[in-house]
């Protein structure tokens, strides 16, 4: 079976260990009844407690299984309007949110921000007032400036989901990474997890450090000193500038994209030198545990951050699983926020 799957270029059909979902939670999800999520918005990982994180992941587990069925649709957002505002270009995240909203029955609109009134001089607050007049229920925002999504959330009368703001946070990426790890490893605590590469410019790294730390994991950051945040000592993590040392006996290897668009100086000597020292290949991965999984949030720079053959290795790489879990996590987050909206309107 494994050989056939490899010849077909897909992951073999094996049953990975998974944490058993409590029976009452499984029943709650199947009936579509509310689960506790005491937040109006999803702006970051920082405000979330471990039970909040678990609530999203448990619901996302349900949607991950639903998305593998012939009928992938639910109607929990029926009658609601979702607006996607992406001030930065995105492929995976925007498509994922759009698919998630449509599968839940929402009316989904993608605003073309490159041609928006903001480009003509309108302020972000004026845009918020304009959106309020349209009475959306869910607003998904990606913005190049840290804090911009939080500002919008203060000015609109709907639930806001942060799809990435500057170097600040990318909460749904961290949640989908967590779900991928939990489904592959059977748990999301007491694991040794290495996050490698451009830590300084990565909102994905920041959100993952917070989430994985809240869930009691051991976190290692690996990369050149020029790509480490100046306040790294406050993160409660181990820091390495050597891949062999940093990857020793880890359970999860999470590679990051070199964010050249956020760099304004000589952070690395060259991409070739960077790959030699910090790009993940089979030789470096051999220092991790034999069953360690390989992750990357995408888009990948093959031959810079990761060897292409390793990225496609169905026995080690869960990169395509991350893409799949992204839809499920975003469905779960919007479902829980929509329940809060309905509960507030009914009160």
UniProtKB/TrEMBL annotation:
<dbReference type="Pfam" id="PF00185">
    <property type="entry name" value="OTCace"/>
</dbReference>
<feature type="binding site">
    <location>
        <position position="120"/>
    </location>
    <ligand>
        <name>L-aspartate</name>
    </ligand>
</feature>
<comment type="function">
    <text>Catalyzes the condensation of carbamoyl phosphate and aspartate to form carbamoyl aspartate and inorganic phosphate, the committed step in the de novo pyrimidine nucleotide biosynthesis pathway.</text>
</comment>
<comment type="similarity">
    <text>Belongs to the aspartate/ornithine carbamoyltransferase superfamily. ATCase family.</text>
</comment>
<feature type="binding site">
    <location>
        <position position="203"/>
    </location>
    <ligand>
        <name>L-aspartate</name>
    </ligand>
</feature>
<dbReference type="GO" id="GO:0005829">
    <property type="term" value="C:cytosol"/>
</dbReference>
<feature type="domain" description="Aspartate/ornithine carbamoyltransferase carbamoyl-P binding">
    <location>
        <begin position="40"/>
        <end position="182"/>
    </location>
</feature>
<dbReference type="GO" id="GO:0006520">
    <property type="term" value="P:amino acid metabolic process"/>
</dbReference>
<feature type="binding site">
    <location>
        <position position="92"/>
    </location>
    <ligand>
        <name>carbamoyl phosphate</name>
    </ligand>
</feature>
<feature type="binding site">
    <location>
        <position position="298"/>
    </location>
    <ligand>
        <name>carbamoyl phosphate</name>
    </ligand>
</feature>
<keyword id="KW-0808">Transferase</keyword>
<dbReference type="GO" id="GO:0004070">
    <property type="term" value="F:aspartate carbamoyltransferase activity"/>
</dbReference>
<feature type="binding site">
    <location>
        <position position="299"/>
    </location>
    <ligand>
        <name>carbamoyl phosphate</name>
    </ligand>
</feature>
<comment type="function">
    <text>Reversibly catalyzes the transfer of the carbamoyl group from carbamoyl phosphate (CP) to the N(epsilon) atom of ornithine (ORN) to produce L-citrulline.</text>
</comment>
<feature type="domain" description="Aspartate/ornithine carbamoyltransferase Asp/Orn-binding">
    <location>
        <begin position="191"/>
        <end position="336"/>
    </location>
</feature>
<dbReference type="InterPro" id="IPR006132">
    <property type="entry name" value="Asp/Orn_carbamoyltranf_P-bd"/>
</dbReference>
<dbReference type="InterPro" id="IPR006130">
    <property type="entry name" value="Asp/Orn_carbamoylTrfase"/>
</dbReference>
<protein>
    <recommendedName>
        <fullName>Aspartate carbamoyltransferase</fullName>
        <ecNumber>2.1.3.2</ecNumber>
    </recommendedName>
</protein>
<dbReference type="InterPro" id="IPR036901">
    <property type="entry name" value="Asp/Orn_carbamoylTrfase_sf"/>
</dbReference>
<feature type="binding site">
    <location>
        <position position="142"/>
    </location>
    <ligand>
        <name>carbamoyl phosphate</name>
    </ligand>
</feature>
<feature type="binding site">
    <location>
        <position position="257"/>
    </location>
    <ligand>
        <name>L-aspartate</name>
    </ligand>
</feature>
<dbReference type="Pfam" id="PF02729">
    <property type="entry name" value="OTCace_N"/>
</dbReference>
<feature type="binding site">
    <location>
        <position position="170"/>
    </location>
    <ligand>
        <name>carbamoyl phosphate</name>
    </ligand>
</feature>
<dbReference type="GO" id="GO:0006207">
    <property type="term" value="P:'de novo' pyrimidine nucleobase biosynthetic process"/>
</dbReference>
<dbReference type="GO" id="GO:0044205">
    <property type="term" value="P:'de novo' UMP biosynthetic process"/>
</dbReference>
<dbReference type="GO" id="GO:0016597">
    <property type="term" value="F:amino acid binding"/>
</dbReference>
<keyword id="KW-0665">Pyrimidine biosynthesis</keyword>
<dbReference type="InterPro" id="IPR006131">
    <property type="entry name" value="Asp_carbamoyltransf_Asp/Orn-bd"/>
</dbReference>
<comment type="subunit">
    <text>Heterododecamer (2C3:3R2) of six catalytic PyrB chains organized as two trimers (C3), and six regulatory PyrI chains organized as three dimers (R2).</text>
</comment>
<comment type="pathway">
    <text>Pyrimidine metabolism; UMP biosynthesis via de novo pathway; (S)-dihydroorotate from bicarbonate: step 2/3.</text>
</comment>
<dbReference type="InterPro" id="IPR002082">
    <property type="entry name" value="Asp_carbamoyltransf"/>
</dbReference>
<feature type="binding site">
    <location>
        <position position="173"/>
    </location>
    <ligand>
        <name>carbamoyl phosphate</name>
    </ligand>
</feature>
<feature type="binding site">
    <location>
        <position position="93"/>
    </location>
    <ligand>
        <name>carbamoyl phosphate</name>
    </ligand>
</feature>
